[in-house]
Amino acid sequence: MHVKHPFERKTSFKMRFSSLHPHDKENKEQRRFWWRLLFSLLAVILLVIGCYAGLAYWNNRNQVVASGHKVDGSPVALKVNARSALVIDASTGQILGQKNANQKVGIASQSKMLTAYAVLQAIKKGDYDWNTPVKVTQSSDWSDKDNAMYAHLEVHNGETLTVKELFDAMFTTSANDASLALADFAKKKSETQQEFLQRWAKKLGLTNSDWYNAAGQVNDDAFDYRVKSASATAENQATPKDLAVLAYQIVSADPDVRKYYDKVGLVYRPNANEAATKIKLTEGGKFDQEIKGKLNNPNNLTVEGLKTGSTPSSGGGLTGLIKDQNGHEFITVVSGAGKYTDSKERYQVTLDAVNQVLNEQQPITVAKNTKVSGQTKNAWSKTGRVQLVAKEARTYWVKRATKVSSLSFAHVARQNSQSLSDDETVRWLSPELKASYLPTVSKEVHDLPLTNQEMMEQTTRWGYYSHWLFKW
């Protein structure tokens, strides 16, 4: 018989929790919605700010916009009566006409220009000055040699001349002893004269040249300066382009070379002795007396210098500095212009080369203070804008058929620069021009330098940020 326990429960004990009130559940969902919306808005705001900052950054970069097609300023193919020829603008290094300009030829006394350049650099550096005395050595004393064969001064072993006297003698009379004595003086004690010449040729970037002695003599006629490891017929050689590079650097370093053909006589004083003063007829004097009147010169070009040099193998040669009636200067190089004994032909061919350039090309000059790039935005200027103009004049040569107005430059839409003075260069612009330049002439020489039209007031840093953000 089953007896029911008096305390026995019919069901087991369980804890029960009632569910949230429907109203509370709705509030939670609403909070989630607003949080999602807030995060979405923040993401959108950050995205907008990022996009704006990106656009501001992009639009505030220095902006130079190309303008149109390039006009033709390529070199003229010279048709002169010479083996090789070259004409360049003496100011910018633009190659205006050429014929076999990369063909290596014997350069004879044109070699003296390399010693001249080395001396100019040493004077600039302060190693010595124009009045420093230089002793003529036994090797550089050529006073006993035939002057018709080996041009020289009347100066002897142990006597002295100043650097300036020897320098002038190299250019005005092509004196071999002057160039040899100067090269011996200028070279390092540890190097030969050939090594001295090779070192300076390398510094100048004369990559297609050979050097043996400072006078430019054929090796067998160099006497004490003969290079024993070379053949008897070895001679200094260079391309017309290398000679033009050398002449360009000399003209840039020493403006006085323009006056050498004005000198009829070279005056020099061995040992600085007034009583021993000597005078020698210059190449400029010979040109004026014997050659100038015989030349066909329809454009009245002026021959200002620079250096002659001829050999039997290469014929008449001349590295010249020529000026036209409008003041444009040209550096010219001709080789193989008639026989090496013909003094007139090398000058005639030089004038013919320049005349052909003038007949086929025209100069376009951008004057100083010319507005080239319009109003330019600049966040560093107090106004946020500046007017850029040409700081210096530049001349560019183009084909005769070209309209002057067709030469253009890139448009500078924005230039962020703290250079706000009117005497500072802000940037350089290349012309839209198909042209060639001497390889060692920097772009800053032939590109157009831009500056502020007037002195501008610089804004504060907050002003800069304001312009940067709001004046695209």
Automatic annotation (TrEMBL):
GO terms for molecular function: serine-type D-Ala-D-Ala carboxypeptidase activity. Belongs to the peptidase S11 family. The chain crosses the membrane at residues 33-58. Pfam families: Peptidase_S11 (PF00768). This is D-alanyl-D-alanine carboxypeptidase (DacC). InterPro entries: Beta-lactam/transpept-like (IPR012338), Beta-lactam_class-A (IPR000871), Peptidase_S11 (IPR018044), Peptidase_S11_N (IPR001967). Residues 77-337 form the Peptidase S11 D-alanyl-D-alanine carboxypeptidase A N-terminal domain. Keywords: Carboxypeptidase, Cell shape, Cell wall biogenesis/degradation, Hydrolase, Membrane, Peptidoglycan synthesis, Protease, Signal, Transmembrane, Transmembrane helix.
